[in-house]
Design brief:
351 residues; alpha/beta; Rossmann fold; six-stranded mixed beta sheet; 12 helices; 10 strands
Length: 351
């Protein structure tokens, strides 16, 4: 094991793991598990990248407050980075996102300002912009900040190249939140593995890329208004109610070979299957990307290799429908096991 000067040195270098039981025969299916980052998601990379880029440029001053709009994972990553580096952090987040995300950020020392659920991602971004301007805070602008795809180009993309050196890599499957992973890794694959097909997944309820409709933007690249093809969906962290500028870069550079739309129930089914059949504990967005990878596998040639990104851990979703049928009390089968021997049993619950 290596020694690190701070927790920030442990970000990245996440493992690629073979899928055994769920992979179709004749296809090599792998997943890159970003839950191995210290705060449990791919957004730890983004958080470190944007803060260190701002330090180098002088945009972020010592002790200055950082602010960002987030569905949770970026905020959690930023809370870790800001705690380690000594910056106060304020995050804005729509009230519809999971409660455990708020608690994690607050536990790490961040302040969480909730915005109305009806205003979705667009509202929480607008609130962050308003607060940054009013107080002179540094806004990381994760949806437009070029430091976001840059760190994926330097780390995630390089890791994938190294992990598949001398081997086939026919398909790389990802979703998009900010688009940082998509755009950063695509830059590397297009140059060094041009044979690799880049497959992007998005919610069936919010087929913004599939629609082909342009996103209206302000002069700074931020969204001018929500995208017309957006509808609410259960993939927290995926597909805000606009197409981020960074995602738009991947579209404009024609990096995407195919777009798949994933229904919410299929995403949750795949999350649970990964946990119960492979022992891989991930969230809804990971299940959605994995559903897309399975679809790719169906049409892949024998011997093909598919790599699927799994962006975060399942613990971000305990209060969401992903865990809706997982009870805290013993079910009938568990009670039957308990009652199969006479001692150390809980007393029957009273009505």
């Amino acid at each position: 094991m290596a020694k690190f000067d701070s927790i920030l040195g442990t970000i990245g270098r996440t493992p690629v793991v073979r899928i055994n039981k769920l992979a179709p025969k004749g296809v090599n299916l792998y997943v890159k598990i970003e839950a191995f980052n210290p705060l449990g998601s791919v957004k730890d990379r983004l958080a470190l990248g944007v803060i260190e880029a701002a330090e180098r440029s002088g945009e972020l001053k010592p002790g200055q407050t950082v602010i960002e709009a987030t569905s949770g994972n970026t905020g959690i990553g930023l809370a870790m980075v800001c705690a380690a580096k000594g910056y106060p952090l304020v995050v804005t987040m729509a009230e519809s996102f999971s409660v455990e995300r708020r608690k994690l950020m607050r536990f790490l020392g961040a302040k969480v300002v909730l915005t109305p659920a009806a205003e979705r991602a667009f509202g929480m971004v607008a609130k962050a912009q308003e607060l940054a301007k009013a107080h002179g805070w540094f806004m990381t602008r994760q949806f437009e900040n070029e430091a976001n795809p840059d760190i994926h180009e330097r780390t995630t993309g390089r890791e994938i190249i190294a992990d598949f050196a001398g081997e086939r890599l026919d398909y790389w499957v990802t979703g998009f939140g900010t688009g940082g992973t998509l755009t950063g890794v695509s830059r590397v694959l297009r140059k060094e593995r041009p044979e690799t097909k880049i497959i992007v997944c998005e919610p069936a309820d919010a087929p913004m890329l599939t629609s082909g409709e342009k996103q209206e933007r302000n002069a700074d690249g931020s969204p001018a208004k929500p995208h017309p093809a957006f509808k609410p969906h259960p993939m927290q962290g995926w597909s805000p109610d606009f197409i981020p500028l960074i995602t738009g870069e991947a579209v404009d550079m024609k990096a995407i070979d195919r777009i798949l739309t994933i229904p919410g129930p299929e995403a949750m089914k795949c999350s649970k299957a990964l946990a119960q059949r492979e022992g891989i504990f991930v969230g809804i967005t990971s299940g959605a990307t994995f559903a897309g990878a399975l679809e790719v596998c169906k049409q892949a040639a024998p011997g093909a290799t598919v790599l699927c990104m799994l962006p975060d851990t399942g613990e971000r979703y305990l209060s969401t429908p992903l865990f809706g049928d997982i009870g805290a009390d013993m079910n009938d089968e568990e009670l039957k096991i308990s009652n199969s021997t006479p001692n150390h049993r809980l007393p029957p619950k009273t009505a």
